[in-house]
Design goal:
5 helices; 0% strand; elongated
Length: 125
């Protein structure tokens, strides 16, 4: 029971964080100032892709927890792989974007890591 609650909380947090990543895309890209159109498109694509990835990870964990429970091998694999992906993304963000002065990007690796921990704990409790 507690494991599933942790999975639900982690899923909701990372989906909300992913949506929060997608919503300000236009203003984020605008913040780069005058840049070539190709660069603007690439930044837009990458910003949205990260948000969608975060949403997908949250949704897949949520659906598996709701349909498959938290204590079978397939569910556990989904939770651990999703958590591992979040840790990879947290490392990437920590070594790149979090080195800027932008507070939400500085917080991003922390949120990803916390959700990964929730997924790992949810799979064993």
């Amino acid at each position: 029971m507690i494991g599933e609650v942790l999975l639900y909380i982690g899923s909701i947090v990372i989906v909300v964080w992913g949506i929060g990543h997608i919503v300000p895309t236009k203003s984020v890209v605008k913040g780069f100032g005058e840049i070539p159109e190709n660069n603007r498109r690439i930044i837009t694509m990458e910003w949205i892709a990260e948000g969608l990835t975060l949403c997908f990870l949250g949704v897949i964990v949520l659906v598996v927890a709701l349909l498959g429970g938290s204590q079978n091998p397939v569910s556990t694999a989904v939770y651990w792989l999703s958590g591992a992906m979040l840790l990879v993304m947290a490392s990437l963000t920590a070594s790149t974007g979090a080195r800027t002065k932008i507070v939400p990007i500085k917080v991003c690796p922390i949120i990803k890591t916390i959700v990964a921990i929730l997924f790992f704990l949810g799979s064993i409790l």
